[in-house]
TrEMBL record:
A Pfam family annotated for this UniProt entry: FtsQ_DivIB_C
Entries under PANTHER family matching the protein: CELL DIVISION PROTEIN FTSQ (PTHR35851)
Membrane-crossing residue ranges in chain numbering: 21-43
Cell location: Membrane
Name of the protein described by the UniProt record: Cell division protein FtsQ
Keyword ATP-binding carried by entry: no
Amino acid sequence: MKKAKKEAAAYKRPKVINARVIGIVISVLAVMGFVIFMGHYTLSAEFFKVDKYGVEGNSHLKDSEIFDLMDVKGKNILSVNTEIVARRLEASPWIKTSYVRKELPSSILVRVTEKSPAAMLNDGRAMYLIDDSGVKLDAIEKPMPGIPVINIEEKHKRAYTEAVRLVNVINKTGELSGKTIEISGMRPEDISLTLNGLLILMGFGDYEKKLASYFSLKDEIAGRNIAIEYIDLRFANRLIVKPVKKEMKWVKGAI
């Protein structure tokens, strides 16, 4: 008897699943299926595919070129990541900053700030527009008036860097606006500036100070009415004028 009772106690009836629990589980699965279906439908719906765009702030790049850079045509606007699109735009050498906004159901609006050409680079093989960091913006077929020209190959890195620094100083100086300017030199200490045909030896660094020295005495130099071979600004606190004749003429002036 005791053995039979123990066996009976050890035996357990299988649990009966409550019909209510089954109903809840089925409902949850149905909702999940509906959400998945609607999500898939929404992401693939024609209604949300990007087919319109607006662009502001561009002058060099065309609207269509910017839209191509965005790479969003035909994509579902809900899946478009605006930060990724902005990074694509700013990968262009012409675009400095960009702002991207989505407009439901299918439009993308973009505002860009383009870089301005600081100079032209003539490397002996081709000519390019460059920005104020020396980065190439675009190849050009012929020089553009009013923009300084750097006649230095990029392989001369130190000289090229100094030439870009000099260009930025020149561009901030209103007195040189519209002048024909060329910068040359294979070493930083050899940097020279040709200003409307006049050779000015600049050397390395202190470009603001050196140009200020030139501006303070240029009228006096012009008033002497002599043919000048070059002006030397390489030495601290003095400006040297070399006439075409053999005699060396010094023009003193505190900087």
